[in-house]
Specification:
By secondary structure, the protein is mainly beta. The chain has a single domain, classed as Immunoglobulin-like (Sandwich), CATH 2.60.40. A 5-stranded mixed beta sheet has the order 5-7-3-1-9, with no helix packed on it. The termini are far apart. It comes from Sphingobacterium faecale. This is Lipoprotein.
């Protein structure tokens, strides 16, 4: 009985002494990314007549200042603005106010019966900068979710 108590006490002391010894700080690397359904790509039917929303997300601790995020929209050689699509979101930047975690980029897709499937029918939304020097895309060398590519398909 005495041996069991001594053994239990020793184990408890070693357990308590070991707590916190190897603790690591929680991962806290703020970043901005763009995705839809956890993907960096999407297809749109060539006859679509709809407005679609593509969200840019902020992943960080709550901010105390506004965050301006800039982006660039680049069409492939098979798409023309005003014919195949229209930007509903004006300009090329969005402002995240404190407490806001996602902001929309809206695009109106137009029916394109003459779409040439041999051309580059992609529209790329790429994050290009921000006012607080946060990481663009997921942290890591691949910068995943820094770009979102929409392909108009027949």
């Amino acid at each position: 009985m005495r041996r069991t108590i001594l053994y239990s006490t020793t184990c408890l002391i070693l357990f308590l002494a070991g707590c916190g010894k190897e603790e690591q700080a929680p991962f806290d690397h703020p970043f901005i990314h763009i995705m839809n359904n956890n993907s960096s790509t999407e297809t749109v039917n060539y006859m679509a007549n709809s407005v679609r929303t593509y969200n840019i997300y902020l992943s960080s601790k709550p901010l105390t200042e506004n965050l301006s995020v800039s982006f660039e929209v680049t069409p492939g050689n098979g798409l023309k603005e005003g014919v195949d699509y229209e930007m509903v979101t004006p300009g090329n930047s969005l402002v995240f106010l404190p407490g806001i975690w996602d902001m929309p980029v809206r695009i109106r897709w137009k029916a394109s019966p003459d779409l040439d499937p041999k051309k580059d029918n992609t529209l790329t939304i790429e994050l290009t900068g921000n006012s607080q020097n946060l990481t663009l895309g997921l942290p890591g060398p691949d910068q995943l979710q820094k770009k979102f590519v929409i392909t108009k398909v027949k």
